[in-house]
Amino acid sequence: MSERQQPWSDEAAAHGRVLVLSDNPISRAITSIATAVGREVHVEPADDGGPGLHPQAGDAVVLCDHDAPDAPSVLRAALASPAAYVAMMASRQRAVSLLDELVEEGVDVAALHVPAGHDLGGKGPGEIALSVVAEIVAESYGRPGGPMRD
């Protein structure tokens, strides 16, 4: 009699936190999905950055409101931190002025994921959050994401 093989591992991998700026339907959905996949989530509800996210090594930082008053400083701090993933919810078009401002200041924005998430085609908050969490998980395992089939 052979032992049943399971497609998952019961061993918990060590992952950083998911840090999200501002409370909105997408950040709440990110919290639900990321928690379901075993990630600790902290949402900073104040759109001015509040007391700060203080990213540590391995953390994922997601700016869910590119119009937040403190968006530039949050991105500056996240990109200068040891965070493993930094992303912003915005189309490339909407992000242009903010990215230009950061580049003019000498901030390296090459690691910034904008728009955040994988291209799943979703439009609703839950679907967008799913794409972002999928990208965070893929990045944490050094994988590109995408279909597993050949």
UniProtKB/TrEMBL annotation:
<protein>
    <recommendedName>
        <fullName>XdhC Rossmann domain-containing protein</fullName>
    </recommendedName>
</protein>
<dbReference type="InterPro" id="IPR027051">
    <property type="entry name" value="XdhC_Rossmann_dom"/>
</dbReference>
<feature type="domain" description="XdhC Rossmann">
    <location>
        <begin position="19"/>
        <end position="136"/>
    </location>
</feature>
<dbReference type="InterPro" id="IPR052698">
    <property type="entry name" value="MoCofactor_Util/Proc"/>
</dbReference>
<dbReference type="Pfam" id="PF13478">
    <property type="entry name" value="XdhC_C"/>
</dbReference>
